[in-house]
Structures are given as C-alpha cells and as structure tokens.
Amino acid sequence: MPEQPLENLRLEPIAGPATDPIDLSPPGPRRVGRGSENDVQLVYATVSREHALFVLQAGQWMVVDRQSRHGSFLNGVQLPAGEPTPLAPGDLIRFGPWTFRIRDPRSVAPAIATTNDFHSSGHRIETIQRATHHEFAQHRLDLILECAASANAAASVPDLARVMLDTALQGTGFGRGAVVRQVSASGEVEMLAHAGPGMDNELQVDISRSLLAAASAGEIVRLTSEARPDFGQSIVDLGIHSAICAPLMLERSVEAYLYLDARRGERAVAEEAAAFCAAIARIGEMAIGNLRRGQLERQRREMEREMQAAREVQDVIMPADAGSGSFLRYALARRPGRFVAGDLFDFVLLDDDTAAAFLGDVAGKGISAALLMTIAQTYLRCGLRVDRDPGAIVTDLNQHVFRYSAANRFLSLWLGVFDREKHELSFVDAGHGHWLVVRPGEKPAPIRCAGGLLVGVQEGQQYQTERISLPPGSRLVVFSDGLIEQHDRLGVQFGVARAIDSLAGSTSAETDVRTLAQAVVRHAGTDALGDDLTIASIEVVA
Q1: pLDDT digit string (tens) for 149-195?
Q2: Cα separation of 168 and 43, whole Å?
C-alpha cells in the first residue's frame, strides 16, 4: 500500500554553494530559480531564471521542471519539463550545483553526527582516480561477481548497503565500516549499514567528516596518518591508521558513501583496497540507479492507476453536461486533473417549485477519494428527498463522514436549495467558498456568508442555513478550487478576480462554463491542469 504523502517537507542542502534549507509547507507553490522574483533564489549560471516549481496537490508535494536549460534531476533522473513528479523523504534533488536531501521534519529517524577532523593536520587525504586499473586476486574477483549478483537482487537501498559493506570488508582487510547517507550541510548522516566497533552509536559515529567532504567531489579518497599529535577527541586519538571513502553517485549527486577504516593494532589493509572499493562502489551506483528509477516508475504507475479508478467513478456519478428542470437549467464543464480526481457535482429536481444542486471537492486522490465522493453524493441525494434544509442535511453528512471515514478524509461542499415561489436560495458553504452570483443587470459578485468547517473535520459541527434572493434571470456559478488555484508557469494562481473578469459579457449558463474553462487553460498554458476542474452555472429561467 503506498505511503501517505506529507504536507511538510524540508530540503537540506548537502552539496553546492552555501544556502539555506528549503521548507515546503502548505499552501505553496514555491518557485525556484535564478531570478529575484522566485521564492527560493539560487544564483548560478546553470540555474535558469525560472527553473523549477514545488506544488502541493491533495497533500502531496510535487516538483515541476519549468523548462530549465540545464534540467532538474530527481534521484539522478532528469525530470521531463512541465510534468509533476511526487517527492518523498530520502530523495535527492539537484538544481545546477546544488543537491538537496529531502527529509520529513517530523521524522524520529536519527541524524548522526560525524567526527569533525577538518583541523587535524596529522592526516593526509589522497584522491584515488576511478580510472586506475589494478589486477585483483581471484578471490576478490569472486567477491565482486557475488556482490554484483546480490546487488541486482536487493529490494531496497539498505539491503544493497549491507551487501556492499560485507563485500568491501571481506576484500580489503578493514576492521570496520559503514554506508551512510548525508542528510545535512553540517555533516549529519543517516546510517544505512554498519559493522565493527564504534559504528552503532545513535548520536555520533567515528567517521571522518573531512573524508566525507573530500569524497563529495565524486572521487574515492584515502586517509593516511602522518603523525600522532594530540588532537583531543579527533580522529587521530581513535588510532586510525588508514581509511577509505567511496562516494556512490547518482548522475552528479552523491547518494551515499561507503566508508572503511582500520585502527591501532588491526591488520594491515590490502594494497588494492582502493581499487577494490572502486569496483564495489560502481556496482552500488548502478544498483541504486536501478532502484531509484524503478521507484519513480512504480510511483507514476500507481498514481495513474488510482487516478483512472477515481475518474471512472466520477464519470458514473456526475450528471450530464447540461440539463433543466422546471424553473432552472444548468451547464457543466469538467476537466480531469493530472494527479487529483475528487470533485463531485449533482443537480436534483425535488418538485416543480424546488430544486437542489451541490458541488464538493474531496481531499486526497485515487480510490479512497472516489469512495468518499460516492458516499457523499448518495447521502446528499437521499437527504434531499426527506429534508429541504441544507444546514440539517450537511450536519448529518458531517457526522457520517467523521465517524466512518479515515482521519485524513474530508471534503469542501457547497449545497444550495432553490425556491421558485420565494425567488430565494437557501445554502450551506462548508469550507468551499468558490461561487459567484450574477443578478440581472449586475456584474458577477462573490457572496459574503458565515460558512462552516470542511465536512468531516470536527464531530458535532452544526451547519447553519443561510439565504439570499435569486430573482428570475439570475445565474449562480460555482466551481472547484481547481479553477482558482491553477497556477501559470510563474506560479501565479488564476484567482477570483480573473474569474469575475472572464465572465464579463457572458449571458447564459453555457457561456459561463465555456468561458471560464477556456480562460483557465490559457492561464495555465497547457490543457493538462494540475487539479480537477469542475464549473457549473445554474440559471433561474422563470
């Protein structure tokens, strides 16, 4: 079952020029680029003026490359321009020279400090060129072949890390080691695998921070001790006589480090240790790349599968695109979003003088959202048959959703009952807020109302019916947040003001929905909208 998406993420810089972490929190979006108008400004030649965009849809953060010249990379894979891709903790994302590790700010997983030995002059760090060729003894070749087979079968990065570490220790003579993933610019790491004394401390591990920093350039590095001066608790005091660090690269970003060291009286390290580690690291890089690409592909397939299921439910429960009943007629326009499908709408003729309509937007996506859509639609239709009071109906629906739906499942809802004799609309706006009224001879205008909480958020919530006059010739235009919150390529939302301006000159329900749908597509610059778009216009004809 897919993990629940997170509405708050932190992007920790782990490579590149000094910069602050990027915090992603609702409502978004967050624009990234070289230009000063961006929310996150990264000034470098390989960062485009308008480089990338972070957007929050249905509680899931997505990254969108804004047709940048040099590309945006997620886990070593270049993102297709304009295509939203979901983010998850542990991911690596690169813009130009900057690499960020995505973290859950609420995570209880420990970030372990490394040993700060930058000022230890008793060490020399050497870079080992990956292209160096060495002859291996037969047993090391056997280890490499076995490692390649096991790496190919690894189901996760931690599984792969254990395979690599075990092989590296067997083939080099080192006494301890770890595979770590850097999670902050201050040198904190996440332990993926470890072996040997001193590597299981939950607060700090005896890993040379300067060695990690040197390896972050993308080459294998080796540390040797030239002297033994007193450095307090520095790496020299630990008695290390040699260490090797091999970066595991995804494209041009370091996904993890293979670290090995030997101390005091431990056996000598094999001369070919660096070359052997290079071979193991290369196997690890290919395996991690395959795991990450497979993960992205599974995420895309799962998203597409859930979206298709939700759209099929929508197609069944939604009414026709146009209809009429007694004194009302309506027009409806729908456009499915790329990764959200949670809108519901219905028009119900109750008798010759009374009709009802409702539009809602279910939080979430996929099958669970589709289920709540169906429940809400059925409950409202049944409720309207026995009660014409919107406040009472929505109060009952709220209790039902709160008790029988998951804690993170709720919906915004607008429900209106039209009275022909009184020329009146009675309604409840439960956290929706997206509707306009066009009275004869007047411009479209939003309605100020008390409103109420989203349906399903709070048990016992009482919703109050409100009323406005709606004489013949009036139109009510109600729409989902997919209209108002649709952003353009600069991250600017469509907004209510554009909706009002777009309706200027419209004289019918059909024109209302067509004009608004065309306007938001022009604003987005693409037919592929981020969220579901549902627009309904209901006209009082008599």
Answers
A1: 888 888 888 999 999 999 999 888 787 899 998 888 777 888 899 88
A2: 40
